[in-house]
Fold Protease HtpX homolog.
Amino acid sequence: MRSRFEPDRKLTVRMVLTMFLLGLLYVVFVAALIVLLKSVVLVVVIAAALLVAQFWFSDRIALHAMRGHLVGREEQPELHGIVDRLCAAADMPKPRVAVSDMDLPNAFATGRNADHAVVCVTTGLQRRLTTEEVEGVLAHELSHVAHRDVAVITIASFLGVIAGLIVRFAFYSQLFGGRNRDQNTAAVLAIVMAVSAFVYAISFLLIRALSRYRELAADRAGAMLTGKPSVLASALTKVSGDVARIPTRDLRTAQAFNAFFFTPALGPGTALAKLFSTHPSLERRLEALSAMSAELGEPG
């Protein structure tokens, strides 16, 4: 069933293209390693099993990592009320609702599809934002579920791990494979490392480019659903400003989930780092929301 979230054809094209290129890249990668190493079947099977497990249990993994827990209506009536209103407006299944006991102000959506999705907000976000701003943030997160980009990012992000697993397998199997093959071992390892580095670099760039665009698409779709781009802009400004006050140790703990957050736990520090960021700059997001506000004739 299609939701009423504004469809984004450009996002769909980017997701399909990214998954096609990543799939092609890893087929070639595995084929090359089979030729070089003669035996990587075990690693491929293990990597595939881990990928399926992460995809199937992505909601549980994310909640556990972020110290989140599911909450019922009696525990969080206001939060459930916001999600109920948004899902009714979007004509989509209601996801499970969770809260993370973290001071870091943020939110994320996870799950393999709309019927198995979870939206989670931190207690830090609830304390800092108004009800209207929390609604804007949740509309943004629900749009990720409706656009199905959560599942795509989950799969795409995990594929980079395969390269590392195969490299380790190659290194140890060749290292302990016998002293009479030292020259061959060195040559094979050099080629494997070079191929792996290339595969990881291309994967990294493809995933980052998709992640930045999907955040802009979610901003637009969420703001269109609520009809209040300025409220989402206000939430973005508050959250981004308050993240800077969170202890760096706590931010580094959450950084692994940057691609799934409403705003990154640790933003890029340099101009070069911005090219590899999971999110567009705050300025870029605010400009887009300001243009939407003018387009909708929003007062104020």
The chain has twelve helices and four strands. The chain has a mean pLDDT of 80. Residues 182-226 form the longest helix (45 residues).
